[in-house]
Design a protein that fits this description.
The structure is a single chain. The protein is mainly α and about 325 residues long. Among the domains are: about 40-160, Serine Threonine Protein Phosphatase 5, Tetratricopeptide repeat (Alpha Horseshoe), CATH 1.25.40; about 240-314, no CATH class. About 65% of the residues lie in helices and about 0% in strands. It contains 16 helices and no strands. It has helices spanning about 10-20, 65-70, 75-85, 85-90, 90-105, 110-120, 125-140, 140-155, 160-185, 190-205, 210-220, 225-240, 240-255, 260-270, 275-295, 310-314.
């Protein structure tokens, strides 16, 4: 199989993805950014990195509460919140601030009530939706967390705290679907495997493994046009990686597209210069092109090996 050589690549991608999508929550001991793990704990941290910027609709006597929350000053936040007018306290912004303060103190049930009240007052209040997502996720209901985060991002696409958690959960769900697809494939249930892989791509279009699995299934089903399209999509989406270009070049050759295959293998040689295996692939692809696809008037040229992919594009 094309993908056997690259079986460890999926694990590398997951690690890279989790480093890039580091969670917007952490422990009270301020775990260093270099820790490559998706860590979510019940106690919420109050600081500039974890409390989103203040909403624009805060009452004037609630704004200092939010500033104190972002500065990590619980005492100041509590004092100012208690001094706010009843009218200011009875708003979605104030209830969300109260919820964050309670969340940081570990009072999850009370925080949940505050966020729910804020959403009842303003159904699309993004930070309250984010707080509900955080609570759901910490309590083990990742599906509910996913839905709350998605609502928060839909309400405010700039809310990075919710967007990052949503991306992390999407990545995890995509990897679970890939594992499901592999199990279905091993059991001989190819249609079910394809559904799982395609669902994984909908959640994580930058995950490589589903592209390779789908293309492999298509190739073994003699659906070479589809295999080529899948691998080209992977290349365009993820980049000109060795793990993509080699199966793409082979699929093009299997499909009789020798000129395109030659160009892909030349691109592969740019990625892996000096690799003797790649050099052989280029030479074989060139010979196939020169004896098959190359226009007849050029086939007798003595300098055929000097034709490169820029010439093919022309």
């Amino acid at each position: 199989m094309w993908i056997d050589t690259f079986s460890t690549f999926r694990g590398v991608l997951v690690a890279i993805s989790l480093i890039m999508l580091s969670a917007c929550v952490t422990t009270d001991t301020r775990i260093a950014p270099s820790v490559a793990a998706d860590i979510l704990v019940r106690r919420y941290v109050l600081d500039y990195a974890h409390v989103p910027p203040a909403p624009g609709d805060l009452a004037s006597d609630i704004q200092p509460v939010w500033a104190a929350l972002r500065a990590g000053d619980r005492i100041e936040a509590r004092q100012v919140l208690d001094l706010a007018t009843p009218a200011s306290r009875d708003t979605a912004g104030a209830n969300t601030a109260e919820g964050l303060l309670l969340l940081a103190s570990g009072a999850t049930a009370e925080a949940y009530s505050c966020f729910q009240l804020a959403v009842a007052q303003s159904p699309d209040y993004p930070i309250a939706l984010y707080g509900l997502g955080f609570l759901a996720e910490t309590q083990g209901d990742r599906a509910a967390g996913f839905n709350w985060y998605r609502q928060a991002v839909n309400a405010d696409p700039s809310l990075s705290a919710a967007a990052v958690r949503l991306q992390v959960l999407e990545l995890e769900q995509a990897q679970e679907l890939v594992a499901q697809g592999e199990q279905e494939e091993a059991a001989g249930a190819t249609p079910a495997a394809l559904i799982a892989y395609e669902s994984a791509l909908q959640l994580g279009p930058n995950i490589l493994e589903p592209y390779l699995r789908i293309a492999e299934i298509q190739r073994h089903s003699s659906n070479l046009d589809s295999a080529v399209r899948t691998l080209r999509l992977a290349r365009d989406r993820i980049g000109e990686l060795h793990v993509i270009l080699e199966p793409l070049g082979r699929a093009l050759q299997d499909n009789g597209e020798y000129g395109d295959a030659y160009g892909v293998f030349q691109a592969l040689e740019d990625v892996a210069p000096g690799d003797p295996k790649v050099r052989t692939l280029v030479e074989v692809a060139g010979e196939l092109y020169f004896t098959s696809d190359l226009p007849a008037e050029y086939r007798s040229l003595e300098q055929k090996p000097m034709i490169v992919r820029e010439d093919l594009a022309a």
